[in-house]
């Protein structure tokens, strides 16, 4: 079948029209490598609903994919060519976010941290956050909360199109004067920028936390803190006020629950089971631990600068708990570095998450250079190294050998595969464990995954994988991402064990494995949950077994496990059972610091017990998960309503995606099928020049085919090429083809002829661009053809690819085109009226908050004066009466001042309201542009006459 360049251009423009998120989201979904659930699409559309909105809170329960929701919003902004995008996340999640954006949405990102920031400055660039200026390529900027706060002035200089803040409950105490320094700095730096806040627990302890988060998004959403307290923070809030607050929050906060999604059928949750194995260190292991621990506890250390003390001692303790093999290597490197007076931090590279801690602690390399007087300590370190070398057995490794068989039996009993992922925090321990396990029955069944994977086996796996997938969409071009993909594939297809470090496992999904072994257990509960989340996540079909080791020779280790297991409930129960707790704690890093301090400063088991008891008491309010009636009444909606809405959304997404994919296939057919030797179609895709393309990303990945989408590769190339062609006026001899669909309206045009014009109208404001193709089609009899019929006509093949030039009278289109244009402008105007009315209502509520606060203050003062007069009459002495009179006069003066200022304050509120409304009107000002894509004459013939 033949198609003209005009038809190809029409379809290319049609597939890439800018518009409301509701209309244009399908393209983004079709380009994503993820199964989109309806609640995720709902959340993304909620975030994108109004171009005037200052932002939203996405508050789905943990496990429902807020990362996907936010990524969908970012992808939509990227598609709109709004490329100044910022992601602020906990330091431990930076790499995971970067990989998710790349793998699932093909969105480029750059992680900004101290080292890269300073390097960019040294290259002469003024602001490393302005990625397009610094690198020439736009990308999503990712940084940690701590780093963003430290660089608030540079952050503020970038006109961000959108800022996404993950784990945003870190900001919820911003309303407090005595804390939340990081939150305040971020609030200042990102003032006026559109924001999406992600948090499973936007409200934990006080309704004022919601006020805090909403004020970060929009300071004009509620009145000031005093007015919010006066209206909504009362002990017994009236039902009318509660309903009003719920309605106001429903415009800015979207929350879906696991049970609602499960009822809709989107996600089925599995359980996790805990299995523990006790061990007791040998005498030499115990001696090594005690001596190194006492060394780290000394106050007079010269080898560690005070600024780096916490980081260095924490990491050495983690390595010490991992294996004597790791300790030996670390001590050797420390000795070498100290002898050469080099930064001590370089001795800690065995710990694969070092950068996260450096970024959290605001430590640069220059802070870590050690003093010269190190000789005595170097000798001591050599003694430790010698002792570590003398240790022959390893009690925890022997416990691993014992428990693996039992754990595999349990996993198989639960229906899972005989596969286990083993986590360690040390690269040296990882290597040593691989050798040990290979010598004990697991030879050729082991895959290693860490931050670099520079070992020979990993390189060989990577090389074979590249050869196997060369030319397919599996190869991303990023060595880090492709190395991980190769090793995960090897684990899935051939191996029994994958030994991982934390850094290596960031961003990977291992749902095909349902056994996880914590060889080394992190102290940070959020990091433990992220680790387990590699296997226990959406897509896991089996219950998961989590294995932990308990060191019976170390009371602190025992108490850490008890805290994580019993208080945080990390290892047992339904998926996400710990989400309330994990969302409620301010920072897992802070808990990790607290635990480190116990190790560092406690000299006896009694002290350890007392300190852990105190820690649990401090965390009590956060760890005791209770049903929060306020949260339920404000943020959660009736299950039936939510489930019904999600069902409707699923139907829409499936239908729109199916139609869009059919149009994608038609684009390939139009653009490529002229060469029948190189183009052929198959189910869900086509072949072109020896390469198979698939519209279904899962099939493309599993069958080594290219994923055909508009965001990159062949699809993007075709779109760019077809939209850039200048098209002459021609004659298009269409042939009715029932293969395109039994379209009676088109069939009725057989034997007729006429003229058509395709015009793209763009209606743009500073906030939103709306585009539409005006298809004006007139028969020679002067009859106007409906635009839908014209679209179908343009999908018919033509007699030959050699279209002949012609002349068309453009005047015949004007009336129809004006009618279509007016209809489109009416829709845009109606939408803008809705956006405007929502903002007007918001500002009216804000002004009402401020006025209500004034009224309440006057009433409070009147009540205080009344009470003061009553109390004064009951006083016994003259001195007391005189003092009471002075207080009464002060209250009356304050009341009089408030009343004098009352009308002036109300006038200021009205003036501010007017100013903000004028600002909104300016943002909605529309600029209309018309671009003729092509004009043509046409005829429609019956297919049989050309058979």
UniProtKB/TrEMBL annotation:
Positions in coiled-coil regions: 851-922
Keyword check for Membrane: no
**Which SMART domains does the record associate with it?**
DEXDc, HELICc
Q: What sequence ranges are listed for the domain Helicase ATP-binding?
A: 47-220
Q: Tell whether ATP-binding is among the UniProt keywords.
A: yes
Transmembrane intervals: none
Keywords assigned: ATP-binding, Coiled coil, Helicase, Hydrolase, Nucleotide-binding
Q: What InterPro entries does its record include? A: DEXDc_RapA, Helicase_ATP-bd, Helicase_C-like, P-loop_NTPase, SNF2-like_sf, SNF2/RAD54-like_C, SNF2_N
Quote the protein name from its UniProt record: DEAD/DEAH box helicase
Q: What organism does this protein naturally occur in?
A: Photobacterium alginatilyticum
The opening ranks of the lineage are: Bacteria, Pseudomonadati, Pseudomonadota, Gammaproteobacteria, Vibrionales
């Amino acid at each position: 079948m033949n198609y003209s360049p005009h038809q190809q251009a029409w379809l290319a423009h049609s597939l890439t029209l800018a518009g409301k998120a509701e209309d244009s989201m399908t393209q983004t979904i079709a380009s994503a490598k993820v199964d989109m659930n309806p609640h995720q699409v709902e959340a993304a559309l909620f975030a994108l609903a109004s171009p005037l909105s200052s932002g939203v809170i996405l508050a789905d329960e943990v496990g429902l994919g807020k990362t996907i929701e936010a990524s969908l919003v970012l992808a939509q902004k990227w598609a709109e060519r709004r490329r100044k995008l910022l992601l602020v996340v906990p330091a431990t999640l930076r790499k995971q976010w970067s990989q998710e954006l790349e793998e699932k949405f093909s969105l480029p990102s750059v992680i900004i941290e101290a080292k890269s920031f300073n390097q960019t400055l040294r290259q002469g660039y003024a602001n490393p956050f302005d990625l397009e200026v610094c690198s020439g390529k736009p990308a999503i900027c990712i940084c940690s909360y701590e780093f963003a706060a430290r660089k608030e002035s540079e952050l503020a200089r970038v006109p961000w199109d959108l800022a996404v803040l993950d784990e945003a409950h870190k900001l919820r105490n911003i309303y407090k004067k005595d804390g939340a320094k990081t939150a305040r700095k971020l609030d200042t730096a990102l003032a006026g920028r559109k924001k999406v806040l992600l948090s499973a627990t936007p409200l934990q302890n006080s309704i004022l936390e919601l006020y805090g988060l909403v004020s970060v998004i929009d300071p004009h959403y509620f009145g000031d803190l005093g007015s919010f307290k006066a209206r909504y923070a009362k002990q017994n809030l009236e039902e009318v006020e509660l309903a009003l607050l719920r309605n106001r929050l429903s415009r800015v906060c979207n929350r879906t629950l696991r049970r609602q999604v499960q009822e809709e059928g989107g996600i089925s949750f599995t359980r996790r089971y805990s299995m523990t194995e006790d061990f007791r260190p040998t005498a030499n292991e115990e001696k090594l631990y005690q001596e190194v621990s006492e060394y780290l506890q000394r106050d007079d250390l010269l080898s560690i600068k005070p600024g780096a003390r916490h980081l260095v001692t924490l990491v050495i303790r983690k390595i010490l708990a991992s294996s004597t093999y790791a300790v030996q290597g670390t001590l050797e490197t420390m000795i070498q570095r100290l002898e050469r007076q080099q930064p001590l931090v370089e001795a800690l590279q065995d710990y694969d998450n070092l950068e996260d801690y450096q970024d959290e602690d605001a430590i640069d390399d220059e802070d870590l250079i050690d003093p010269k007087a190190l000789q005595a300590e170097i000798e001591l370190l050599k003694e430790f190294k010698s002792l570590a070398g003398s240790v022959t057995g390893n009690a925890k490794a022997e416990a691993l050998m014992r428990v693996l068989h039992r754990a595999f039996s349990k996993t198989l009993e639960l229906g899972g595969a005989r596969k286990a992922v083993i986590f360690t925090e040390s690269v040296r321990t990882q290597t040593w464990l691989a050798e040990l396990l290979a010598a004990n029955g697991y030879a050729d069944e082991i895959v290693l995954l860490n931050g670099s994977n520079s070992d020979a086996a990993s390189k060989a796996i990577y090389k074979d994988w590249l050869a196997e997938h060369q030319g397919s969409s599996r190869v991303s071009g990023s060595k880090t991402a492709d190395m991980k993909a190769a090793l995960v594939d090897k684990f899935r297809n051939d191996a029994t064990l994958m030994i991982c470090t934390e850094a290596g496992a960031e961003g990977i999904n291992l749902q095909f494995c349902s056994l996880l072994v914590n060889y080394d257990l992190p102290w940070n509960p959020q990091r433990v949950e992220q680790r387990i989340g590699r296997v226990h996540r959406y897509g896991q079909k089996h219950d998961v077994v989590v294995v932990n080791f308990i060191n019976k020779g170390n009371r602190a280790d025992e108490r850490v496990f008890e805290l994580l297991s019993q208080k945080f409930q990390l290892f047992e129960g339904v998926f996400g059972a710990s989400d309330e707790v994990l969302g409620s704690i301010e920072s897992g890093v802070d808990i990790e610091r607290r635990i480190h301090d116990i190790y560092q400063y406690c000299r006896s088991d009694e002290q350890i017990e007392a300190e852990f008891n105190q820690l649990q008491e401090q965390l009590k309010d956060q760890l005791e998960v209770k049903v929060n009636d306020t949260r339920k009444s404000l943020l959660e909606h009736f299950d039936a309503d939510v489930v019904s809405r999600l069902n409707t959304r699923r139907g829409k997404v499936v239908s729109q995606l199916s139609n869009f994919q059919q149009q994608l296939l038609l684009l390939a057919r139009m653009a490529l099928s002229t060469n029948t030797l190189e183009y052929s179609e198959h189910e869900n895709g086509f072949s072109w020049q020896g390469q198979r393309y698939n519209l279904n990303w899962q099939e493309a990945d599993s069958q080594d085919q290219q994923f055909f989408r508009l965001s990159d590769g062949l699809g993007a190339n075709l779109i760019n090429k077809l939209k850039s062609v200048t098209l002459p006026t021609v004659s298009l001899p269409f042939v009715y083809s029932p293969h395109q669909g039994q379209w009676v309206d088109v069939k009725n045009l057989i034997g007729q002829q006429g003229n058509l014009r395709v015009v793209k109208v763009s209606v743009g404001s500073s906030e939103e661009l709306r585009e539409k193709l005006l298809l004006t089609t007139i028969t020679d009899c002067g009859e106007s053809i409906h635009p839908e019929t014209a679209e179908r006509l343009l999908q018919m093949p033509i007699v030959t690819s050699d279209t002949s030039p012609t002349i068309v009278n453009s005047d015949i289109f004007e009336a129809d085109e004006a009618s279509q244009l007016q209809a489109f402008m009416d829709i845009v105007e109606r939408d803008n009226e809705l956006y405007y009315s929502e903002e007007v209502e918001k500002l009216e509520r804000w002004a009402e908050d401020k006025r209500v606060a004034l009224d309440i203050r006057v009433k409070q003062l009147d009540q205080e004066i009344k009470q003061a007069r009553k109390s004064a009459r009951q006083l016994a002495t003259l001195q007391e009466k005189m003092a009471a009179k002075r207080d009464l006069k002060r209250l009356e003066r304050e009341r009089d001042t408030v009343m004098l200022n009352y009308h002036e304050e109300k006038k200021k509120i009205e003036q501010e309201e007017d100013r903000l409304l004028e600002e909104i009107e300016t943002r909605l000002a529309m600029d209309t542009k018309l671009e003729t894509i092509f004009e043509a004459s046409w005829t429609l013939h019956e297919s049989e006459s050309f058979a």
